[in-house]
């Protein structure tokens, strides 16, 4: 009877803390170590083998997709790239990193948004560390929150550089000619509002002509693009599980959520959707590989940590002593698809809406 009661108490603690700590006292939120994860018997079994195959398969998938689609395609004979090669999904242009979606919006607005969001997220992350300590980084939520904070920080730096280039061109050519440099095919041509198809065609023609003047992004530009799409999937994953799985369980157990925890599982998605509405960055499907890679690296980190030290698992479904662990691992892996797809749908709706409402000034691509 004593063992059953102890098991129920331990299980309750595990279920309360699937994503991140909700109370300030460590004794109130840290789960109890129930299994010695440093023994060979814990790792040498069929469950670990199946989960390991899942991890290796994920790594193989991600590296195959990244090597196939990422980055600009250089012509094999060393000649200039064709227009089809320049338009492929893996390409990132330098001006896409700091230009707003609509040509009439000054880049300083996007810079201001990124700066404000960066400092808000940094303050929230710092408060979380001050309240619960560095051990919060055992959780996937804090990994993702840190990632999105770094994203907005890097985005602010790139926007500063973009604003400098913007004003440099304005000083050299006049304020009325800057946007025309990127979209020369549509500059000076007006179309009736009813004839949006003609405007869209001219816009596409302008993009083709502007390719010769646009500079391909450097390493930090590609890192920024990858962080954007990786953050999108990870934020959707953490917030979806929290609000649709964790919160109902906590409500049943009368567990009190703090204001900080609630905000950390909502404001990140709000800020990222706002960023998506303002920027003109692409969102190709193949970069879901980075989302898988992000989660896989987190799981491998947890495996290494637990093989070296008998510590508690931040999420019960990561515990390999559970006979259903292969099922939990597979379910979380499959959940990546709809979570990434939700944000891809948001980007698609943004593209269609802006293209319909602002056919002449919308300067983003799918």
UniProtKB/TrEMBL annotation:
Recorded GO CC terms: membrane
Keyword Chaperone on entry: no
UniProt keyword list: Membrane, Transferase, Transmembrane, Transmembrane helix
Domain of life the protein comes from: Eukaryota
Residue ranges crossing the lipid bilayer per the database entry: 46-67, 111-131, 143-164, 232-251, 257-278, 290-315, 327-347
GO molecular function: transferase activity
PANTHER family: OS02G0130600 PROTEIN (PTHR12242:SF22), OS02G0130600 PROTEIN-RELATED (PTHR12242)
Protein name: UDP-N-acetylglucosamine--N-acetylmuramyl-pyrophosphoryl-undecaprenol N-acetylglucosamine transferase
Organism encoding this protein: Heracleum sosnowskyi
